[in-house]
Amino acid sequence: MFDKIQFPQYVALRLPSGTVKVEQITPNTLISLGKYGSFHSNQIIGRPYYLTFETLDRAEQKDGRDLRVVKASEIHAETILEEAEPDLGEDDSVSTPNAGQFDEYGLPLTTDKSNVNIIDDPNNQKLTYDEIEALKSDKMSNPKELITKIMANHAQLDQKTAFSLAKYTLRKQKKYMKRFTVIPLDVCALTTFLMEEKDFTRILEIRNETLGLMGSWANVHASGPALEQEESRCRYLMVDDTGGLLVAAVAERMGILHHQQPTQSEPSPTHPHKPKVEGVPTEMQDEAQIEAPSIQRPRRQRYDHTLATSNTITLVHANQQPNLSLLRYFAFDHTQPPSSVEPNPHQLHTHLQTLTWLQLLQPEADSTYSSEPPVRTSEELSALKPNHRSNYYRKRRRWARTKQVVDTARAGGFDGLIVATYMDPISVLKHLVPLLRGGAQVVVYSPTIEPLMEVCDVYSTARRTAYLQEMRRRQALSLDGTADETKETSQKEDNTGRMEVGDEDDKARADETRDTASGQELPVLDDARFPADPTLLLTPALHHSYARQWQVLPGRTHPLMTAKGGAEGGYVLVSTRVIPLQGVIVQARGKPGRAKKRTGAGLDQATSAGTPIDNGNNDNLGGQASKRTKVENDTAA
Amino acid sequence: MQSAFFNPGPTTTEGQIASLHLSRDQQLPVQLTTVASRAEDQGYAEGVVTNTRFGSFPHSTLIDIPWGCQVLASKVDTGTRGRDNFTHSRKRKANAISTDSPTDSTESASLKQATAANSGFIHVLPPTPESWTTSLPHRTQVVYTPDYSYVLQQIRAQPGSTLIEAGSGSGSFTHAAARAVFQGAPTSLNNASKTEEMHTAGKVFTFEFHAERHEKVKTEMEEHGLDSIVTATHRDVYKDGFWLTGERGAYQSPRANCIFLDLPAPWEALPHLTRQDTPDKPSALDPDSTAYVCTFSPCIEQVQRTVSTMRRLSWLEIEMVEIQHKRIEVKREYTGLKYEGMRGVNPVAATVDEALERLRQVEENAREHQQDTRNKSRSKNGVQQNNSSESAVQKHWDEGKLIHRAEPELKTHTSYLVFAVLPREWTEEDEATARARTGQIDGQSQPKTGPKSQKQRKKDSRIRAGQANGNVGQVDGGLPNASP
């Protein structure tokens, strides 16, 4: 995909100053690089990436070439030279430890030359501003010569230490060399660009190392080609407030981000990604049948709107439309469904499926989902004006797509959840975690730690234990009912503290749950202390990763002096969706308050009933808790 | 069947590898099977049993359940078995509760039905490179998730890439790399098309010079169903490079575009990774794509030497980073006199007011004590009221202050990562051809430049409508006009 520079790809152009410019390559255009000159796009189209070009002076131009490829040996020339001669030109001009020279104690010799005599004097440079400007505007001269001239005219150049000389040379090169390097604009390059050149907060200050970490922990990978009779897989559920950057990163890992340009030899396939899948809503097929009679002459094959069922991203968004503006760098515009004649539409059109929170949680309230456009007969259709007919098809397609997306999303079974949002992550997890299959990874990014700390707390071992106890207590209430009033009161006495506060409410709720509790599933507690079901996730882990950049130069290796601050990589919460044991809810028997004995009794009962129950006290998820369990086990034995 | 790493399927099945989740830092990779084929699996009434500190888990309770399920330990007799010359894991005996008649069930031909024990539970999770990394048998220094996730991203290991890894080490990176490049499952390939398919389907070529480690990685790949993606080779890459042995011993290029060198001396391997073809040895790199390399070295001297070699070998975009990763622990901190006597709390006054109150009370008590010396045990009683067992912590789970701190043991340095890029070879002839081709573009009309905006589309269609001059049939996707 990035084997050579192609249009209409976006590319990153790195300038000598280190700044990066993102440009879309279109043929026959002049791309301006500001003070570093300009060049014709045709001069780089078809060339490999990562080449450094230098704009040629008029004197050097021939055959219409105004660019020259700078060889790697030329780029590294100075450093290689420096390595070969550690003395750097002069005999003892290095103030740093010198490999070749040692004093009588065997310590590296430092020279007496230092910056002690260097005076910051504006008159050091003997060339005047006008003279330099004249040199610069002289098209026949070469920037390298210009730098040499400027340096030769520096009064204190010989006073400079190796460090300051190197720095000085570099500064002049940055200022005058008319070079640029073409870098492919993949997710890595785009993230770096947005971090360094653009409004970093717009992408939630998410960095490359964090994107990599999230992708790995979320276990994002490609599904591979679909095999027959297989259930769908590699379906990832996402919430993304980074303008589509996270979606792009995930899609890149799944191999569906970069648009494959068809080569001229192969015939353009209509749906190259995936053959039609079973289980497509019948509406789509009906539609195809309706269309059939109206075709009277051969026409171009329509774009296949069938949504992919594997290797997909389902994005839930808070606004009417998702913000996926950054995907335009990858030739994808979600607002623009591919035209029916588009020979090679972007894979994301079928693999990226978006829906709003309303469509996910209350689909009946959403007009697109709930109001199906009336189906028309073929007679009606042929009587319509063509633009009305295409309108009809468009509406039908839109509705069918929405319905399919919403229905499959609500059916759940996703293989991973990846979240980066301004919203409260707990509210997101509350609704989305139940849609994951067991063993699916959950990854939540936040530039600040506080929201994730709260998530950790909601899914903590202690809260889970309390939740299960509360659940059991209510279950006991609902099973025993009012028949065993005395028991209930003893229970309440046992559950001291805050549990007593909402006694009346609890009783009312217990009555409510009585009906539902007879089923297999436990009701989710309607309790502010349990904002999400803590039994559905393993105890989360919080990660923080930061890539520290170094400079590696002969004798001058050290970490970079400055770096971007802010979130500094942010924080990543990782957890796994699990399926807690459910079924017969055991009555809390035995001596109340003695948790160990109670669970033992409960277990025996469960075993005899053939369905094991959850054991809150033997929670072996957190480190501390497991130690406790161990102790309990030992004492029991 | 596809590897459980890529497609575990809806339920656990016989022969798959599963990751048994004990705690956050403790996962146990297990090959699920009901048939005890190995010596150490023999002797259980329930078939194959995995013993953990949370009890014993017969595999019959782990197979054919949905992934992610919580499974209770079972009552398994490990004691009887221990007498039959078994030396391993006898310390786990304490976890098992002895059953009443173990001998009877051992003699019965069918497997004993497992019964639940109250020693604990585990979760059965599908294997991932991450869980494998935390649980794998250490043979060498392991490349951990923060490092390999960054490396794989930076060397652009994507579905369909061809990746070289040297050396294989403990296989942590190998698993992650296999997932990154995985694109398809070339399982039903005949040999003829294998070489063709090799380059399109995403491959990992892993090299290891240590014979034993190589064998282990090779076996692991087969056990994990990754051998169709990962080719393990026993080779000293310093000396012999990265070529594959094709037919009749001819050198064959792996055509790699991502390279990861976890070697003590990467500079000795780098000369084998050039663009130059020699008559008998083709370049190990893919001539049609950019090559990305990463070296993984713990010492700065190694980095300097590597970078210096890279410069001489024309690698570009040389960068060095170190990944600083930490895991953060979140917990509730309890400070206050009311938590006195509980474990893991700060039994000091939470506020100045509370301190004042306590001090006043002490003063008062002292005064009372002076007045009435018989009233000795009052203050003690006060403390004892708060003094309770651990269940008290559970009672207060919603209180305290939410705090976070770094994990107690930090990995402050793993290794330095050096990244570099080798562009495709670009000769004067290539330049001439490219120039000839771009010359053709000059003549063409402006090609389509990506998706158009809504506005632009409307404008276009208006223009088209104008050109068609009333012939509406041509508008919008060329739908033919049905009525002539």
TrEMBL record, chain B:
<protein>
    <recommendedName>
        <fullName>tRNA (adenine(58)-N(1))-methyltransferase catalytic subunit TRM61</fullName>
        <ecNumber>2.1.1.220</ecNumber>
    </recommendedName>
</protein>
<keyword id="KW-0819">tRNA processing</keyword>
<feature type="compositionally biased region" description="Polar residues">
    <location>
        <begin position="441"/>
        <end position="453"/>
    </location>
</feature>
<dbReference type="InterPro" id="IPR029063">
    <property type="entry name" value="SAM-dependent_MTases_sf"/>
</dbReference>
<keyword id="KW-0808">Transferase</keyword>
<feature type="compositionally biased region" description="Polar residues">
    <location>
        <begin position="96"/>
        <end position="110"/>
    </location>
</feature>
<dbReference type="InterPro" id="IPR049470">
    <property type="entry name" value="TRM61_C"/>
</dbReference>
<keyword id="KW-0489">Methyltransferase</keyword>
<feature type="region of interest" description="Disordered">
    <location>
        <begin position="430"/>
        <end position="484"/>
    </location>
</feature>
<dbReference type="GO" id="GO:0030731">
    <property type="term" value="F:guanidinoacetate N-methyltransferase activity"/>
</dbReference>
<feature type="compositionally biased region" description="Basic and acidic residues">
    <location>
        <begin position="364"/>
        <end position="375"/>
    </location>
</feature>
<feature type="region of interest" description="Disordered">
    <location>
        <begin position="364"/>
        <end position="395"/>
    </location>
</feature>
<keyword id="KW-0949">S-adenosyl-L-methionine</keyword>
<keyword id="KW-0539">Nucleus</keyword>
<dbReference type="InterPro" id="IPR014816">
    <property type="entry name" value="tRNA_MeTrfase_Gcd14"/>
</dbReference>
<feature type="compositionally biased region" description="Polar residues">
    <location>
        <begin position="380"/>
        <end position="392"/>
    </location>
</feature>
<dbReference type="Pfam" id="PF08704">
    <property type="entry name" value="GCD14"/>
</dbReference>
<dbReference type="GO" id="GO:0032259">
    <property type="term" value="P:methylation"/>
</dbReference>
<feature type="domain" description="tRNA (adenine(58)-N(1))-methyltransferase catalytic subunit TRM61 C-terminal">
    <location>
        <begin position="120"/>
        <end position="421"/>
    </location>
</feature>
<feature type="region of interest" description="Disordered">
    <location>
        <begin position="79"/>
        <end position="110"/>
    </location>
</feature>
